[in-house]
Amino acid sequence: MDQGSAGALQLKWELSGHGWANCHLADDSQTASVIASYCTDALADLVAGAGELYGQQRSARFFFDAEPQELRWVLRPTDDAVDVTIHQFPDVSVSPDLPDSHGTVMWQATYPRSAFAHAVLEAAHTVLKEHGEAGYLAKWAMHPYPVALVQDLRRLHIRDDTCDLPHDLSCP
Ligand SMILES: [Zn+2]
Questions:
Q1: 99 C-alpha to center of ligand 1: Å?
Q2: pLDDT of residue 7 exceeding 80
Q3: What is the pLDDT at residue 45?
Q4: How far is the CA of 143 from the centre of ligand 1 (A)?
Q5: What is the distance in A from the centroid of ligand 1 to the CA of 100?
Q6: 18 domain-assigned
Q7: Which of the 8 DSSP states describes residue 5?
Q8: What CATH number does the domain containing 44 carry?
Q9: Is pLDDT of 92 > 80?
Q10: How many distinct structural domains can be found in the chain?
Q11: Neighbours of 89 (CB within 10 A)
Q12: Cα maximum dimension of the chain
């Protein structure tokens, strides 16, 4: 697998049905869709995970529950970028105790932190524009739109990254 500098990452968060979402990933060399159910607050975990890249640990782990699969995201700092790996496990009822190496890698690429955070923010802003906070909650059902986490991530990204891309400040 090419572990060099991947092209621009694009993320799209799609509320696909009651309590279900698809996180679509695409860069210059690969595409994937990651399923999440509302058993976890998946978008909030993704946004919070991106925010953790700005903290002391500079890394994050969280998982989506695809019932029955576990889709485990591992964000790890490299020299000047972030390694993003998604490990797939067949049964979330047992896999949280298993090491990453027992899963199947369904996504692996390295991005500048700025590019990853920007893509997460774009995805979060776009889903909010599509649905609004009330519409988001109606579809995702178990958890409200993570307004505060998105605000935190945007603040960290704009403060600490040199990002020339536009940022939608009209979103809460
Ligand atoms: Zn940006």
A1: 33
A2: no
A3: 98
A4: 26
A5: 30
A6: yes
A7: B
A8: 3.30.2450
A9: yes
A10: 1
A11: 20
A12: 43
